[in-house]
Amino acid sequence: MFATLLLGVVLNPSPVPVAAAQLMTPPLPSPSAHHTNRLAREKSPYLLQHAHNPVDWFAWGDEAFAKARAENKPIFLSIGYSTCHWCHVMERESFENQTVAEYLNQHFVSIKVDREERPDVDQIYMTAVQAMTGEGGWPLNVFLTPDLKPFYGGTYFPPDNRYGRPGFLHLLQNITEMWHHRQDEVARSAAELHRHLHALADQQSGRDQALSPTVLQNAAARFKSEYDPRDGGFGGAPKFPRPSEPIFLLRYGVRSNDPDAVRMVLHTCDRMAAGGICDQLGGGFARYSTDAHWLVPHFEKMLYDNAQLVQLYLDAYLVSGDARYAEVVRDTLRYVLRDMTHPEGGFYSAEDADSEGKEGKFYCWTRAELATLLTPAEFKAATHYFGVTEVGNFVDHSDPHPLPNQNVLSLVHPDLPASDRVWLKSAKDKMFTARAKRVRPHLDDKVLASWNGLMLGAIARASAVLGDESYHQAAERNLAFLQAKLWDPKTQTLYSRWRDGERDSVQLLDAYAFLLDGVLDLYEATLEPQHLEFAIALADQMTRKFYDPDRGGFWQSPPGAPHLILKVKEDYDGAEPSGNSVAILALLRLAAITDRADYRQEAAQSLRCFGQRLESLPQAVPHLLLAFGFWLEEPRRVVVAGDPDAAPTRALVRAAHSVFHPNQVVLGNAGEVEAFAKTLPLEQGKPTAYVCSGTACQPPTHDPATVRRLLAQRVPDRLGSK
After folding, report:
1. Is the Cβ–Cβ distance between 506 and 495 less than 8 Å?
2. Per-residue pLDDT reduced to its tens digit, 187-216
């Protein structure tokens, strides 16, 4: 029913006579400085970007919903994020347009949502649009009844009919006509779609299913079949790093002695690090590559991508021993600590793709610019190394004056003669200094507990693997910031977002799960008992608020959260891993450290909840596959007895992290650790390491080299169905 009705909306954009002026392409936007709407009261950078639109925007909440009900108006819900390129385009074309704004204000209640602050709202309506149209993305634009049920939606709508999409004003007029003259049909369509979404959510909530180790083998085979042997990565353009996928395949390859799987991942790491998706001057990775070669990125940089890529490159370094991967980690963290860190230690969310209204302008170069900036020797070395050409490799599509001859920097000829490397270093220093004087892309400076948890874990683990004390200090400052700004110790509540001195009131699984995972990485890197205590507090509150005791799995928002028409258990590991995948793996790790049977049972039941997904569509859940692999066998435990702040203890901890062994935990013998670890003493009064499985341990040692040797010994797989 809903599909039939809505097909008519798209195919018949002007079913009723309207004024000729209304059917023309909307005029150019008028200056918006004279307008201020209620979004000016919000903290979200995305909402604040729209605070001076002539559209009478509301934030998601009671005020908007009450107006829609009282005036019997449909809701226009627009969802995006502050560094979204096509969100900016639609704002310029439509939301800054006086004619469009007046029409919206007269006929709709318009609501703006930041998807990064409200992923629960975004998930519901993204699922609805995908059900209606077969596609999704941002900006996400959805039309709702006053009781919040969707009846039509899409992504970007151009100002007039183009790209096979209806013009936005035409679409608004047609929706209005339907609402006034066919409202019963709209209501039935919305009710049918709502029932369909409920059925999907109920199916997603899981059934208990036994799982076999063949899940891992089948998943690896599927990933390997999608591998691009030329450029690395999995699948074609556009290419997203999606780090959970290569992280899983690398772990599978090492565990199963599959050198092809290992080679595929290392080649992918090589090609990404050499491509334009990696900022060759400033460090850090862009969100994705528009082509299959990792050359031309979509230039926005996201905290969550860079956090996960640090974890991937740490794995690649440990598996291969190749110092180049460690350098990628250092370059990425240098970028994060330089450009993405609040003075008090929190990590910002993202940087935009655009500056001065043009995508990539901050990052690209012309050959003429470099000829002016560099000496002849520097110019020769840099243009050869980066493959800079006169015509360029990036086409600027911005209107009305595109920039010509733009080059995205990538490593085209990395094997420079030694004599040229001095000139390359000098050239890169000059280019970085010159670039720093350009207008920077917009910084989304909100601090999200979830994404900070990802980066906290990455930088904490890097401190242990690379032995860099500055990373340890940054991790400690970050956790202190999050505890001060987003954690209420009295109520044991973690809030989701902090910005400009204010936190929100939203409760989200991702915040608890991602921060729990990051705190565990920090504990395993430091063995500080207070970090383990905080991890336990987060885990206990996470299960209390979000766990489904009947079927397993975790709800994205607490049951009964206001204004949500569905209860959702998100399990898709896309650019970010799902809250469920991260929560399950974190609980398994915490169970191995504390021997808490309840954590292990909740994780196991949750794996069975998503068992069908693991079996039938493993490519959708690569991070969940990491959790499943951890669950299949008893993890190895490295217990280090000794003062966590003592240099010999830290040396043993670093040794425990220096060998690639993902099914392993590192713990001390004090605090809320499992009982057996507490029985393991210092030998001869010195910090002592024990490599254990169950209650059996290798002989104790004070020597970091011995720890590395013991961990390098291969333990036969003991995989069996559970």
Report:
1. yes
2. 999 999 999 998 888 776 666 677 889 999
- Give the distance, in angstroms, between the CA of residue 291 and the centroid of all CA atoms in the same chain: 20
Every domain of the chain with CATH number 3.40.30.10 lies at 2-204
DSSP bridge partners of 267? none
Rounded to 10 deg, the angle between the 214-225 and 622-632 helix axes is 150
What pLDDT shows up at residue 209? 72
d(CA 291, CA 228) in angstroms, rounded, equals 12
The reported pLDDT for the residue numbered 205 is 62
* pLDDT confidence of residue 719: 40
Element (H, E) at 476: helix 469-486
SS3 57: coil
CA–CA distance, 350 with 352 (Å, rounded to integer): 7
Q: Name the class of domain 2-204.
A: alpha beta
pLDDT score recorded for residue 210:
73
C-beta neighbour count of 254 within 10 angstroms: 20
CA 321 – CA 287 distance, rounded (Å) = 27
Residue 338 CB burial class (10 angstroms; 0-12, 13-18, ≥19): exposed
Sequence-separated (6 or more) residues with CB below 8 Å from residue 428: 280, 281, 382
Q: Encoding tokens for residue 612?
A: 């069908």
* Amino acid, single-letter form, for residue 225: S
**Amino acid sitting at position 550:** D
Answer whether 558's CB lies under 8 Å from 507's CB: yes
What are 324-374's pLDDT values in tens digits?
999 999 999 999 999 999 999 999 999 999 999 899 999 999 999 999 999
Q: Exposed e or buried b for every residue in 301-326, given b needs 16+ CB within 10 A?
A: bbbbbbbbbbbbbbbbbbbbeeeebb
Quickly name the fold that domain 634-722 has: Glutaredoxin (3.40.30)
Distance CA 615, CA 212 (A): 9
- Quote the tokens at residue 687: 């910090």
**Do 521 and 528 touch, CB atoms closer than 8 A?**
no
Q: What share of the chain is helix, strand, coil (3-state, %, to 5)?
A: 50, 10, 40
